[in-house]
Amino acid sequence: MFSLKPGLNPDNELHEWHGLPFPTPISVREVLTRYLDLTSAPRRSDLKLLSNYATQSLDRKVLLRLSSKDGKQDYKSKIMDDKVGLVQLLKLCPSLTIPLEHLIGNICRFQLPRYYTISSCPKVYPNSIHITVAVTQEERPVGNKKSNGDLPLKPPMFEGVASTHIAKQHQNGSSSSSSSSPSSQPPSLRVFVRPSTFRLPTDLSTPIIMIGPGTGIAPMRALLQDRQYQQQQLLEEKKEEDAAGYNNYNILYFGCKNENLDYIYRNELIDYQNDGTLDKLYLAFSRKDPNKKEYVQHLLRQNSTETFQLVTEHNAYIYVCGGVKMGHDVTETLKEILIEQSESSSSSMTQQDAADYLSKLSNDGRFVQELWS
After folding, report:
1. Once rounded to an integer, what is the mean pLDDT over residues 52-72?
2. Is residue 20 a contact partner of residue 2, using CB atoms and an 8 Å limit?
3. pTM, two decimal places
């Protein structure tokens, strides 16, 4: 499959050896299952390359059309919008004949790692790691193909590679734990851990403002577990009246579409409120009022005075986790708060001053964001 030294490949092309992109020995099934990306939509340049492997002129013309400038709109509607990956493309263009070494070396991109922020505190759960995952499952548009009953054929569901795999392993784990068979093996995942950018202030009395809608609540859950643990340790080490002055101040902004469907960790958050770990919980349900969508940045804006005082007077830390757009909107909202609230103080801020202030907070570890697109 691969040459182990520089020289000519089977196509008589000169190449250099850069090492195998995966561990060996390895089966073809393992390569296709774990290392190659077979589900992402191919780029237009990939379609042009694939046209060279089509043995029928019709398939070749279709691929060249989709890869051309004139076919840009067709590419968007038929490949991107329909979420057509390489597997579906091979079915749509059955004359494609690709040698395995070409598939691995030229056609397929390799799977990129999926990063999930850990949603548990190691002090509380020293022997396990929790993650918060939204399982991606979307219906593909119904095409023109008809069944024998002349009804449109429903295409297969588009499923996220990593999230679906994790969900299936979790289901298998639930099944094996309830099984009495001694031969049932618990499921496993291939994971690695890298250092988190979320660091709590060393002083327990320093306020923290957490902004994590959807699965962005993951690190906030870990931070709340940590703060609860610290408070409990302090109470055990000191007399209760001595520890009272060290009460932490924690604020969480959480948002989701539907309160009854995706308000995750609801019971945990209620418990944190009841035991004093979570001082304030601001909730935004974007689909609650169809005439007015409300997001976490809107709630943050409503609490401008509180936010400004916590950050500028009490050295509060700000943590943000979620989508890139949300992160951008939160940053812009914080700038607006700094500018407007500083007008009544002796040192008013301009747009640039506010941007520089947030930049300094970021450099000092007091404004931390983990965002994804």
Report:
1. 96
2. yes
3. 0.83
Identify residue 312 by its one-letter amino acid code: T
Q: How far is CA 312 from CA 124, 256, 341, in A?
A: 31, 29, 10
For 29, phi then psi, to 5°, come to -60, -40
Q: Which residues pair with 211 in a beta bridge?
A: 253, 320
Neighbours of 72 (CB within 10 A): 12
Measured at the CA of 111, the angle between CA 106 and CA 114, to 5 degrees, comes to 160
- Greatest extent of the chain over all pairs of C-alpha atoms, in Å: 84
7-107 and 208-372 agree in CATH topology: no
Alpha-carbon span 31 to 191, nearest angstrom: 17
Domain 208-372 listed as CATH 3.40.30.10: no
CATH second-level architecture of 7-107? Up-down Bundle (1.20)
Give the residue among 299, 322, 130 at the shortest CA–CA distance from 215.
322
Cα–Cα distance, 319 to 208 (Å, whole number): 8
Q: How far apart are CA 241 and CA 203, in angstroms?
A: 18
**CA–CA distance, 370 with 373 (Å, rounded to integer):** 11
Domain boundaries, the chain: 7-107, 114-177, 208-372
Residues 6+ apart with CB under 8 A from 68: 44
Give the residue among 251, 217, 199 at the shortest CA–CA distance from 131: 217
Residues 251-279: pLDDT tens digits?
999 999 999 999 999 999 999 999 999 99
Q: So what's the pLDDT on residue 252? A: 98
Task: Return the amino acid letter for 272.
Answer: Y
Residue 62 pLDDT class (50, 70, 90 cuts): very high
* 38 vs 134: CA distance, rounded Å: 21
